[in-house]
Amino acid sequence: MKNLNIMLVGVGGQGTLLASRVLGAVAMKESYDVKVSEVHGMSQRGGSVVTYVKFGDKVYSPLIEKGEADIIIAFEKLEALRWFDYLKEGGKMLVNEQKINPMPVITGKAKYPERILEKLKSVFKNTVSIDALSIAKQCGNIKTVNMVLIGLMAKSTDIEKSIWMDTIRDTVPQKLVDVNLRAFEAGYCAG
Q: Using an 8 Å Cβ cutoff, are 184 and 166 in contact?
């Protein structure tokens, strides 16, 4: 397998780090070389969070440069717009349609950009957007947006669904396994 470069971008508190742990653990179960790098902005204050997950036969660096990401999983629309130049030509952008106002918008110093999804889809034909927040809410916990998006991405891989589900069981706290599996399944079916 060629190396697969995945970026997870979102806002602090959305579960990007747990999602990256699930991705890394799935790749390890499949016997791939795996590198994960977490870049925290002001994550605890609602700032941007970026995680790189790379896996394949041999991975030398955890970092992904502009134009190298095979997949970007964006937990929020503005974060998708902020990081889209890291996606390679022919790459896939998975976007949660959720809008979270950053501090400059909250304080009135900036405006939230309009028509983000239309802009992304005009540049990247392989852009898929879903309302992961509503799906997570229907599954029983809005904090499972991350597993909805992981399910959406998992559907487009060659890795068996059971491996993803076993990894979620092994990774999330026991009391949250069922709701996370429901969210994963909902995202998988949305794909």
A: no
CB 5 within 8 A of CB 54: yes
Residue carrying the six token digits 């995945």: 6
Q: CATH code for 4-190? A: 3.40.920.10
How does pLDDT run across 126-145, given as a tens digit for each residue?
999 999 999 999 999 999 99
The model carries a pTM of 0.93
Q: How many angstroms separate the CA atoms of 11 and 75, rounded?
A: 7
Tell me whether residue 121 is exposed, middle or buried, using C-beta atoms within 10 angstroms of its C-beta: 0 to 12, 13 to 18, 19 or more: middle
Q: How far apart are CA 35 and CA 4, in angstroms?
A: 11
- Residue 125 pLDDT level (bands cut at 50, 70, 90): confident
Report whether pLDDT(72) > 60: yes
| Domain map (residue ranges) of the chain | 4-190
Quick check: 113 and 81 in contact, CB under 8 A? yes
Whole-angstrom Cα Rg for the chain? 16
Q: Whose CA is closest to 185, among 152, 157, 138?
A: 152
List, in sequence order, every residue forming a beta bridge with 38; answer none if it has no partner.
51
Exposed, middle or buried: residue 30 (CB in 10 Å: 0-12, 13-18, 19+)?
middle
